[in-house]
Amino acid sequence: MSIIKINSLTKIYPVGNEKVTALDNVSLEMEKGKIYCLLGTSGSGKSTLLNMMAGLEKPTRGQIIIKGSHLEKMNENQLAKFRQKNIGFVFQSYNLLPAFTALENVTLPLIFKKVPKRIREKKAREMLISVGLKDRIKHTPAQMSGGQQQRVSIARAFVNNPDIIFADEPTGNLDTKTTLEMMDLITKISMENNQTLVIVTHDLEISEYADVIIHIRDGKVDRVEEGKKKIEYKG
Amino acid sequence: MGSIDVILIALRNLFKHKLRTFLTVLGVVVGTSSIVIMISLGIAMNESFDKQLDQMGDLTVLEVYNPAYWGEKSDLVINNASIGEIRKIEGVKSATAVVEGYLKFKCGRYVASVNVKGIDAESMEDLGYKTAEGRLLDKSDENQLNIVFGDEIPYNFEKPGARNNYYGGMEETEEREPPKIDAINDKMQMSYDSNFGEKVVAAEEESKNTKPVKPYNVKVVGVLEDNNDYKTKYYAFMSISELEKIQKAEARFNRDVNGMREDNNSAKKGYQSLLIKCADIDVVASVTESLSDMGYEVYSQMDYVNNMKEIAGSLQALLGAIGGVSLFISAIGITNTMIMSIYERTREIGIMKVIGATLSDIKRLFLLEAIIIGFMGGVIGVLLSYGVSAVLNNVELSFLSMMSSEEGNDISTIPLWLSICSLFFSSVVGLVSGYFPARRAMKLSSLSAIKTE
Q1: Model-level pTM?
Q2: Both B68 and B37 in a single domain?
Q3: What is the ipTM of this complex?
Q4: Are residues B279 and B392 in the same domain?
Q5: Is B18's Cβ below 8 Å from some Cβ in A?
Q6: Do B30 and B90 lie in a common domain?
Q7: Alpha-carbon gap: B16 to the closest alpha carbon of chain A (Å)
Q8: Could you report the per-residue pLDDT of A39-61, keeping only the tens digit for each?
Q9: Distance from C-alpha of B382 to C-alpha of B377, rounded to nearest angstrom
Q10: Domain end residue (candidates: B249, B277, B299)
Q11: Can you list the domains of chain A with their CATH numbers?
Q12: Contacts of B415 (CB under 8 A, 6+ apart)
């Protein structure tokens, strides 16, 4: 049973007077609990695909069906509610709110979801501890390293226990050692919770963490292959 | 997002940009306090204006002077016939002729010179006079030597020779001695002889070689209450027919004793003036007009009142406009700050949207920030206004005290409703000026917001 279903998805951007086809008739299916990697060079359309799956962009044509809901038919408020429930997002540039502490940043999705204060703080605290930031709970982003900020960002994506996690170049700004730590962390949590993880990257090394690697080229699915899957879930 | 969370996050955002928030709030403070102070000046002006109205007495009482009596050439004569005519005018409740005289009163060892108005005894109640003690004149007093004193009259009684203090009694000093007489209960005598009750130098008296004028025994039946109306305060009232009798006797006395010729024209000249009571304040204008049409010269406080109202109104509009302009500028300030804040936080807005903020969450957040700016500005502005108001009231400012005509009146008054209204109003200003920026924030595409590096 596939959790994400994409039917002949097309996205055309107007650039000046010309039209650029970012995605050309892409069809895909993704299963629950698996790790997918959208691999491609810069400008291949992989980020556009991810954004549309997260409901951040409207497709020109085609369908995106997640857990049976048609994202392309939803308005912005429905999408916001949908994201609250089902989707976690890890960004390349962390995207933490600078005025808030690590704890508050992690609580934000729960605040939007109207989770009572006591419960959401407990959840966020546990989440931060599980990503290894026990002693950084009250720190603001400016007081943390890039790796620590990305850990906060990961905690924020997972705190809601969503079914799907999207990660857009999650390690683009990190050094090799931290990159590996981060990939270990992110894949571990998603496997523990049987969540679907979709990673967008241009880095072959990162693609090795995936169950399925989807090569994107010039807006089309080039080929789909089995990943090596570096770590196995031992549970 | 819950309401408390919205408030907390909004406060957090504002607090993060302390200087900018402070400056924007300052703009609202200036706007609010200027509008509050301007309105408070207007209110204080109205209050002192109302006080003045009180002092001017009853506005529904018109006075008509008889030009013939004062020696002017005029075809009009105010006599009983014309009073009858005037009574027929619509809106006139009652009308009485007035004769004025200057008489000497004696009570025990104390004497006073008093202006006496002779009026229609039964019209006294209609004229709206009220007593502090005793009663007003009524129909039964028509042929009696009964008198009602204005509230100042009892203070005028002094020992003969203590004349220097006479005017001292009229001035309202705080440590004023109570009247030396009990007007209603003490025995009272009255005479048209100006020397009555005085210690006259014996030689002078002998040279005149006249018998003293026989005084009238009178009864004071009432003392009017203190109503600040100078037209009743310093007068005694009695029946017009009795006063006319006394004046005739005085004329005879003057003719017999002093050889003065009697003014045989007095009947033709008619009464000195008329007092006309209108049914209510709305008909004053029409009654005044009818009287003017009949050729009478009407003295009405209404003209003055209308003038004052007009001036006060336009002055208040001007002051309000100045305040309004300041508040408008501060509203632009709020809008500007909020738009700046949105540009700066584009990315933040995008992140919030991606991690699950709904459109209304974003809108509420930005609206609330604007409202908080407006409200804080309002609170500080109102407090500042109270301070400025206190300073204005305590410092002598010749220009401003001119506007409020009387000393001792406040220049600026801030009633509670004004401060509450301005708090509300400044918050609404925040709301309105934040609305456009908030919509703008709401409509930002989350994707392009995130991409902003």
Answers
A1: 0.68
A2: no
A3: 0.87
A4: no
A5: no
A6: no
A7: 7
A8: 998 888 888 899 899 888 889 99
A9: 8
A10: B299
A11: 2-78+85-96+146-151+162-226 (3.40.50.300)
A12: B43
Contact between B56 and B49 under an 8 Å Cβ cutoff? The reply is no
SS (H, E, C) B266-281: HHHHECCEEEEEECCH
Residue of A nearest to B450 (CA): A95
Residue of B nearest to A97 (CA): B348
Could you tell me the two tokens for A208? 């090795």
Choose the final residue of a domain: B278, B299, B320.
Answer: B299
- Record: contact B361-A93, CB cut-off 8 A: no
Residues of A in contact with B354 (CB under 8 A): 54, 56, 83, 89, 95
Same domain, B186 and B146: yes
Same domain, B377 and B256: no
Say whether both B209 and B121 belong to one domain: yes
- CB of B178 within 8 Å of a chain A CB? The answer is no
Instruction: Find the CB nearest B355 among A77, A89, A99.
Output: A89
Q: Which residues of B touch A95 (CB under 8 A)?
A: 347, 350-351, 354, 450
Domain that holds residue B329: 3-55+307-451
| Residue in A33, A36, A30, A2 with CA at minimum distance from that of residue A211 | A36
Helix, strand, coil percentages, rounded to 5, for chain A: 35, 30, 35
Count: domains in chain B: 2
Structure tokens at B43: 């209110």
Query: Model confidence over B275-301: pLDDT tens digits?
Result: 888 887 778 878 888 888 887 878 777
pLDDT at B375 (0 to 100): 94
Based on the fold, state whether residues B172 and B72 are members of the same structural domain. Answer: yes
- CB-nearest partner of A95 from B13, B351, B357: B351
